Amino acid sequence: PSESAVRDFWQWLSDEGVANSSSSPPPVKPEFVPEGLGLVAQRDITKNEVVVEVPKKLWINPDTVAASDIRRVCGGLKPWVAIALFLLREKALGLASSWRPYLDILPRATDSPIFWSEEELSEIQGTQLLSTIMGVKEFVQSEFIKVEDDVILPNKDLFPSPITFNDFLWAFGILRSRAFPRLRGENLALIPLADLINHSSSITSEDSFWEIKEKGFFSRELIFSLRTPIYVKAGDQVYIQYDLAKSNAELALDYGFIESRPDREVYTLTLEITESDPFYGDKLDIAETNGIGETAYFDVILGSPLPPSMLPYLRLVALGGADAFLLESIFRNSVWGHLELPVSRANEETICRVVRDACKSALSAYHTTIEEGQAYPLLEI
Ligand code: SAM
To answer: Could you give the ipTM of this predicted complex?
Structure first.
């Protein structure tokens, strides 16, 4: 976005009563920062002080769509698809859209791999992130084809200019990177101004730094209220922690950045009991009794102990031969306890081989060696 777009946005917020709601000047202003735009403190701000309050009339959520010109064609659509169409139509309206000041400050893309070229994506060949990205793009593509056929093309009066897959992907990426984590599904919302807050790894508190509340005693209007989790000096940027639980692959997909912390480095191992296993039924029964299914997903985190049920599950999957007696129904209540320790040398050797083969096959998809990868840490995701 341009300097003048940011000025217009600030003016719009001020006209709408956001930037000048009280007699005192607002504690933060949108400014250009290394992360794009951000919220910069205009004075010292104490820990937990409210920095931004945005009334519901300025949110873009399913109610906004339901009150717009496109409401009659958005019936049955998923909330995010309806909001995506709303954003694209308002963008196409240009000066005629009352949301233009907000739309003009939205980035044209983030660094998320969903926006990378084929050539850029080839750099992460072999990673779990790449297969996630391909899956997400296929999903967005199929949603696009549906909405194009059902809504966009049959309603030329509402959508006079063409909408492409890339436009739709942009809207998806905007929603993914800007919606506050707990505002999903029916509650999905873009909150202008509040959505300019950037993430900092140095903020580790998981306390909620925002809430939706009624404006005051005499007004039922809802406002979105955002607080700073720490004290901020005048001129510094206000930050929050987006999500402590997200892996680097999830951060990359959602926001287009990663953190160099081992507990963000996660590989999800998928294991399954195959139907061709002679003990398929018994094994499945034991897994299910212990809260796991036919297919199990284990998040292996760099530098952390393995997920507690991973080894028992592996031993179960590998169980056979002389150890198969453990599958008999008289052991049904105690077998999981046995599986927490090695069952036999043969069983332990099998699980080591299975895991090593899985690692080898996963690594063989990379087009660089570990040594080459270390020269370019970003490619190791
Ligand atoms: N900076 C955004 C902008 O210019 O509109 C406002 C924040 S928006 C909710 C989230 C996006 O900000 C992310 O997708 C990423 O592009 C950027 N961002 C936020 N925190 C960041 C960080 N710590 N490092 C790099 N980029 C960050």
So the answer is: 0.99
Distance CA 211, CA 223 (A): 8
Ligand 1 atom nearest to 255, measured from its CA = 14
Residue 262 and residue 301 in contact, taking contact as beta carbons nearer than 8 Å: yes
State if residue 192 touches ligand 1 by the CB under 6 angstroms criterion.
no
Atom of ligand 1 nearest to the CA of 37: 4
CA distance 239 to 201: 9
What are the backbone angles phi and psi of residue 153, rounded to the nearest 5°? -65, -40
By annotation, the residues acting in catalysis are 242
With a 6 A CB cut-off, is 237 part of the ligand 1 pocket?
no
Please say whether the beta carbons of 299 and 268 come within 8 A.
yes
Residue type at 76 in one-letter notation: G
Q: What is the pLDDT of residues 328-361, one digit of tens each?
A: 988 888 999 999 999 999 999 999 999 999 889 8
- For the entire predicted model, the pTM comes to 0.90
* CA separation for the pair 69, 138 (Å, rounded): 29
Q: What is the pLDDT of residues 210-265, one digit of tens each?
A: 999 988 777 788 999 999 999 999 999 999 999 999 999 999 999 999 999 999 99
- Quick one: pLDDT at residue 27? 94
Where does residue 323 rank: exposed (0-12), middle (13-18), buried (19+ CB within 10 A)?
Answer: middle
Residue 11 CA: distances (Å) to CA of 7, 17, 29, 171, 235: 6, 10, 11, 24, 20
For residues 237 and 202, what is the distance between their CA atoms, to the nearest angstrom? 13
| Centre of ligand 1 from the C-alpha of residue 332, in Å | 51
**Rounded distance, CA 24 to CA 377, Å?**
47
